[in-house]
Amino acid sequence: MKRPSDWKKRKISFRNTLESVPLQVVADAAIANPTVASGRLVPLVIIDSTDRPDVFEYCLAHKNYNGGDVIVTWGAGSSKTSITLKLDVLRPVETTILINFDTIKHTALISLIIEANAIYLQPGKPGDRYSDNINAGNVLIEVPDTGFAAHWRKVRKEIFVTRFRKAGLARKAALIATEQAIAKLNIMTQFPFKLPET
């Protein structure tokens, strides 16, 4: 995956070694609420927090805390096909959470996060599913556009074209199929949830 010119390697400090290890997404879902993100679908990610009790502590503390402060940064991942969402949590507890996304596997998920400008974060372990524990604690985090959205849309197009080409389509057909796939994805990300009229 091509990286923007401003993604230069820079030293990032962490409070401990565990914070520097990107956490993996073990499951995802999407939640529509008329009072959140103008009713658009907001993705929920369950991350493997087995070795991170501070992530559980953060989500638990957030339930009893009015608001919170998080600085959000998109960055390069550990491989050519991954990106990382860095959450520097300042309140109600101080911690840093790195979430690793595979750009091939999580293409739609990343797009949802960017279009909703938000994400629900839920700690968990491999095998967890949102439908199995809907009442588990999760935190809604605002993900403002830091300039990454425009770059992601270019990368997303490349991903779709490559995928269709590998499926056997000629380049022109792959481009048409890509436009159709992105159009469908855009409809999904922009569709507002409305309460039924009574």
Question: Can you describe this structure?
Answer:
The chain is α/β, with parallel strands linked by helices. The protein has a domain at 17-147. It contains four helices and seven strands, in the order ββαβββαββαα. A hairpin with a 3-residue loop joins β4 and β5. The termini are far apart.
Features:
28% strand, 7 strands, 4 helices, alpha/beta, globular, 198 residues, single chain
Short description:
It is built from 4 helices and 7 strands; from the N terminus they run E-E-H-E-E-E-H-E-E-H-H.
Walk me through the topology.
Layout: E1 23-32, E2 41-48, H1 53-63, E3 69-76, E4 82-91, E5 95-102, H2 107-116, E6 118-124, E7 139-142, H3 148-166, H4 171-190
Parallel strand pairs: 1-5, 2-6
Antiparallel strand pairs: 1-2, 3-4, 4-5, 6-7
Helix pairs in contact: 2-3, 2-4, 3-4
